[in-house]
Write a structure and sequence with these properties.
The chain is α/β, with parallel strands linked by helices. The radius of gyration is 27 Å and the shape is elongated. α1 crosses α2 and α8 packs parallel to α9. A six-stranded parallel β-sheet has the order 4-3-5-6-7-15, with helices on one face. Strands 9-8-12-13-14-16 form a six-stranded mixed β-sheet, sandwiched between helices. It has three domains: 56 residues, 434 Repressor (Amino-terminal Domain); 132 residues, 3-Layer(aba) Sandwich (Rossmann fold); 157 residues, Rossmann fold (3-Layer(aba) Sandwich). 36% of the residues lie in helices and 19% in strands.
Length: 387
């Protein structure tokens, strides 16, 4: 047996050699019996399993040795651990908490746990800075909850590591080359939102967005914009004239903590090559009567800025958020913010199910893409177009 020192004591870890001696069989016979190899008779296998249970054999205490042995034959050992790449502070916003809830709903009943780590930049993807658990073969797969650029660099490095090379990977919300993806139907959501507001008489729209020319993948907001443009074109309206894009890339409007901020820079957006306060943009485009937020926080921030300038929602402007995770409550406690309800828990559950299926498959599976529908929740922030 192997001695494991714990708090000054010595705990005896049962080995395959101990089981073999107890049963009077060879070490190889024990190894095959524990793997349910058909070459071992039913009686011998039953005797080995009974001895393992009686002695208290725990295979998890020998995973490192087993990984090493199997790697010599080009095989992987299942550790029941999934790596989760999360943004810093992911446990605070409701958005990421919902995704995590869905992931853990699947992992835990299946006997898996999550190994959570952060990645901030391309520098975090260097071999010297990657957590050793990702390189050492401890994880069975990886799920990413963050923007793809730094994760793409991370995977480029990990694919060269023997301990990770063949592991399946999945990305939530954002598409990522070479990985499975579970995302929302953003294009359909943008289309449905615009159609509803067109029916209420709105004809000119402002879309708060991130314009990211460096991105290697199709962004969720680009899908939404494509859906809005399709709805406008079907209504006989020129999308270039009826949908104005306001870029929030330099202003952290995505954080719910900034909804009520008095910082002037958090009241500004880029339109074309100019940075202007949001209210000034709307005054310069008086035909606009509806605003689409990139998420709920940006929509609520716009709502606050409009109120501060004397405008009313929805009498002067209708406002729609996205994700349906951050409410604006009235005196009765009812949420007034209209929003596209993204099925975040379902996305997390689908990704966890997919990664487990791929990690436990007898032969490698090709990456898959799942697109889940988005529901519309229209509330008090949307009304008929003014005038």
């Amino acid at each position: 047996m192997t001695d494991l020192p714990i708090a000054g004591l010595s705990v005896r870890a049962v080995t395959l050699k101990d089981i073999a001696a107890h049963c009077g069989v060879s070490l190889g016979t024990v190894s095959l019996a524990l793997r349910d190899d058909p070459r071992i008779s039913t009686d011998t296998r039953a005797r080995v399993l009974a001895a393992a249970a009686e002695l208290g054999y725990d295979p998890t205490l020998h995973q490192a040795a087993r990984r090493l042995a199997l790697s010599k034959h080009g095989r992987d050992v299942l550790n029941h651990v999934i790596a989760l790449i999360a943004p810093s502070g992911f446990h605070r916003p409701g958005y990421f908490a919902e995704l995590l809830h869905g992931i853990m709903d699947v992992l835990v009943p299946a006997g898996f746990c999550a190994l959570i780590t952060y990645i901030y930049s391309h520098e975090d993807a260097q071999e010297t800075t990657i957590p050793s658990a990702l390189r050492a073969g401890i994880v069975d797969g990886l799920i990413s909850m963050v923007r793809p650029e730094p994760v793409i660099a991370l995977l480029d490095t990990l694919r060269r590591q023997p301990g990770f090379a063949r592991r399946p990977t999945a990305s939530l919300i954002w598409e990522m080359p070479g990985s499975s993806c579970v995302r929302a139907d953003d294009e359909g959501a943008g289309y449905a939102l615009t159609r509803r507001l067109l029916a209420l008489g709105h004809r000119h729209f402002l879309q708060l967005t991130f314009l990211l020319p460096y991105s290697k993948t199709m962004e969720p907001q680009n899908y939404r914009i494509a859906g809005a443009r399709r709805a406008l074109a079907e209504a006989g309206l020129d999308p270039d004239r009826h949908l104005l894009l306001a870029d929030m890339s330099n202003f952290n409007w995505l954080n719910p903590a900034h909804i009520d901020s008095d910082q002037p820079e958090l009241a500004q957006v880029w339109v074309g090559d100019r940075v202007l306060p949001l209210v000034d943009v709307l005054r310069a485009h008086p035909a606009i009567t509806a605003i689409f937020g990139l998420n709920d926080a940006s929509a609520l921030r716009a709502w606050r800025l409009l109120e501060g300038a004397g405008y009313r929602v929805p009498a002067d402007y209708s406002i729609v958020g996205f994700d349906d995770t951050t409410p604006r409550l009235d005196a009765a406690g009812a949420n007034q913010l209209s929003s596209a309800r993204v099925p975040l828990q379902e996305i997390g559950r689908a990704a966890a199910t997919l990664i487990i299926e791929q990690a436990t498959a007898a032969v490698p599976r090709a990456p898959a893409e799942l697109v889940l529908p988005v529901a519309m929740a229209f509330r008090g922030s949307v009304g008929p177009a003014r005038g």
